[in-house]
Amino acid sequence: MEAPCGKFFAWGANSYGQLALGHTEDQMLPKTTEDFNIPLRHATGGGGHTLLLTDSGQLFTCGNNNKGQLGLQHTEEMFRPQIVKALEKELTVCAKGGWDFTLVLSNEKKLYACGSNMFGQLGLTPVQSYVSSPTPVNLNCLVKDLSTGLRHSVLLTEKGNVLTMGSGKKGQQGVLVNDVPPKIVTTPNEVAFPSGPMTATQVVAGSHHTACLSDQGQVFVWGCNKYGQCALNPRTQPQVNRPHCVSQKVFRNKKVCQVYSGWTHLLAVTDDGQVFSWGRADYGQLGRPVQSGQLCDFTPTPIESIPQVSQLCCGSEHSLAIT
């Protein structure tokens, strides 16, 4: 959620204080924080924690902290936003939360990580079970963008390469070791694309899948395909271990300019503003009719009921759009 300024509102589950309201009671209606009036540029969440990025590039966190995912150098839950003091001298431009970990990108394109590292999702060596302070990830490149899944991470380098790390048994790392997907990848690994060198412009992560967009407007997806996330029939191919290029024919031969992912579904926007959806469908997250009783639709199909959109985003099993 992006905004140039204004009040911060929160609602829903609040078991860990992730709504930043000073307590742990769930909220049925949006409620604003009474004593947090710092202008915000971006707000996002993880499994049970919240990340707030201010206009001045400071990072505040609250909520579940059992693995140190708040970056506060301890593991106590915080019911109100706390500034991440370890990053006070940095200007934060991006922060993403996985299930119980956090990745932070500075204005100098340096990557910091904290929280659970049980699956190597932080990319830190030597591997520790968790890290409670934002720790620099040792990379020989600059990071341009990032995304976090349930227990894996994906990075986009300034040169357009794609790096993955963390859990890999569902194929979400995009690599094979002795023809088998590795259970975990503890250091950032560059993904090789079957069609040869490719320049990526965007990366996204679902719960157990990964996707990226090329500078030619092509969508690549790999990992768990239980619900057709990889745009292939899940009955014949429940898992995709290498990047699969989705045919541009399904996008009516238009170039894709943005791609988004929930836990088990994806959205794509073509250069003429049309929104396509595919993946899991039983919660209505695809925003279009599917066959009765059908749990998913693996073919990217236009959402005809909405006009051109200006913003899109996915929750775990829902979708949002602004026209």
From TrEMBL:
Pfam families: WD40_RLD (PF25390)
Keyword GTP-binding: no
Superkingdom, taxonomy of origin: Eukaryota
Keywords: Repeat
Residue windows of the RCC repeats: 6-56, 57-108, 109-159, 160-216, 217-272, 273-323
Residue ranges of every copy of the RCC1-like domain listed in the record: 8-323
Alphabetical list of Gene3D superfamilies matching this protein: Regulator of chromosome condensation 1/beta-lactamase-inhibitor protein II
Keyword Acyltransferase attributed: no
Protein's UniProt name: Secretion-regulating guanine nucleotide exchange factor-like
Organism encoding this protein: Lingula anatina (Brachiopod)
